[in-house]
Design a protein that fits this description.
The chain is 30% helix and 29% strand. It has 149 residues and is α+β, with helices and mostly antiparallel strands.
Length: 149
């Protein structure tokens, strides 16, 4: 093998190694991506049962029902639609009706969202921008002057 062939073999091996590493990283990232949805998005964008998503909006007034143990059922709304959520864990201290919430989990074939994580915000200053914009567009939330959604 000549010197030029050895150099090309080393370069080719390096490129193959980098390509495999990039493919593995892309595969790992694609499995951990959570898409963000509002309740009214389910009517226009159907979601598969194995797709992990984030559901955001406001906890609907009068919808919180506690079952045995730590099981809780509540509805998340954006003003035009609502989705029933079941969560089997301890809710954050700031969780309450009318409060902004982001849940992570999967939508079941029965239309019930099974959450494995519930995040509650203590005020609208920490609401994700897309949630605040959608709630303002729906007329559900007016916002505050100087607040950073």
């Amino acid at each position: 093998m000549t010197r030029k062939q050895k150099r090309l073999a080393v370069i080719g091996g390096g490129v193959a190694f980098i390509a495999i590493a990039v493919l593995l990283v892309l595969f790992a990232l694609s499995r951990s991506v959570s898409y963000f949805f509002m309740p009214s998005d389910f009517a226009t964008n159907p979601v598969g049962p194995d797709t992990r998503i984030r559901l955001g909006g406001l906890v609907e007034d009068g919808s919180v029902h506690r079952a045995e143990g730590a099981d809780v059922a509540f509805a998340v709304t954006d003003g035009s639609a609502s989705v029933e959520v079941h969560y089997g864990g301890i809710l954050p201290d700031l969780f309450r009706e009318g409060q902004g919430v982001v849940t992570e989990g999967r939508l079941g074939p029965d239309g019930i969202f099974r959450a494995d994580t519930v995040l509650a915000k203590h005020d609208e200053n920490y609401m994700p921008k897309e949630v605040a914009d959608r709630l303002k567009a729906e007329g559900v939330w007016e916002g505050e002057e100087g607040a950073k959604p």
